[in-house]
């Protein structure tokens, strides 16, 4: 495939890949921190994408990271957004056609969410969110209710010099429970 450049907004921070319009082609959701938006680029199945939709947030929200899952159990993909500058998490409800609307916002106090990942952390078969933050140097577990809303369950302190750089989930020790892995640039540690 030949290289293609897509120039559209300033300071893209993260991209998530999923089929947002149910056409069996992979699409892109791009978080742009400076322009305070999430851009949806629909894939046509041959490696090209067209801009479908832009979800604008209020100025200076700083969307930084995206997670994808069916948070309200309607079988359509939704998007969770870590907003670094506004200290909150937005849940964007997906309509199955590549469009979204803000369904739920959860403030995180003084935490500056940088990274998030999606998993079933309390074994209830409902998606939850793990958020790694700068400022408070913690990992926050948000427990999903199944209707698109979340509650803060617990915070784990990551360490004094912590600066989370990447996050993911898997069952690392094969105990049938979801584990969280963080690459910590500040401490040069891999935290599981």
UniProtKB/TrEMBL annotation:
One Pfam family named in its UniProt record: FG-GAP_3
Keywords: Signal
Superkingdom of the organism of origin: Eukaryota
Protein name as catalogued: VCBS repeat-containing protein
């Amino acid at each position: 495939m030949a290289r293609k450049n897509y120039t559209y907004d300033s300071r893209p921070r993260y991209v998530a890949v999923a089929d947002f319009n149910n056409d069996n082609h992979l699409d892109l959701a791009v978080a742009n921190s400076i322009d305070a938006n999430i851009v949806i680029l629909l894939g046509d199945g041959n490696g090209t994408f067209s801009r479908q939709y832009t979800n604008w947030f209020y100025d200076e929200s700083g969307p930084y990271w995206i997670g994808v899952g069916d948070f309200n159990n309607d079988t359509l993909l939704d998007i969770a957004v870590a907003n670094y500058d506004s200290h909150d998490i937005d849940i964007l409800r997906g309509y199955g056609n590549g469009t979204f609307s803000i369904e739920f916002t959860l403030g995180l106090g003084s935490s500056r969410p940088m990274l998030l990942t999606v998993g079933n952390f309390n074994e209830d078969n409902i998606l939850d969110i793990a958020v790694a933050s700068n400022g408070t140097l913690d990992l926050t577990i948000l427990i999903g209710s199944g209707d698109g809303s979340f509650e803060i369950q617990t915070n784990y302190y990551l360490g004094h010099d912590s600066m989370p750089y990447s996050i993911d989930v898997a069952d690392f020790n094969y105990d049938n429970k979801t584990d969280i892995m963080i690459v910590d640039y500040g401490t040069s540690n891999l935290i599981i």
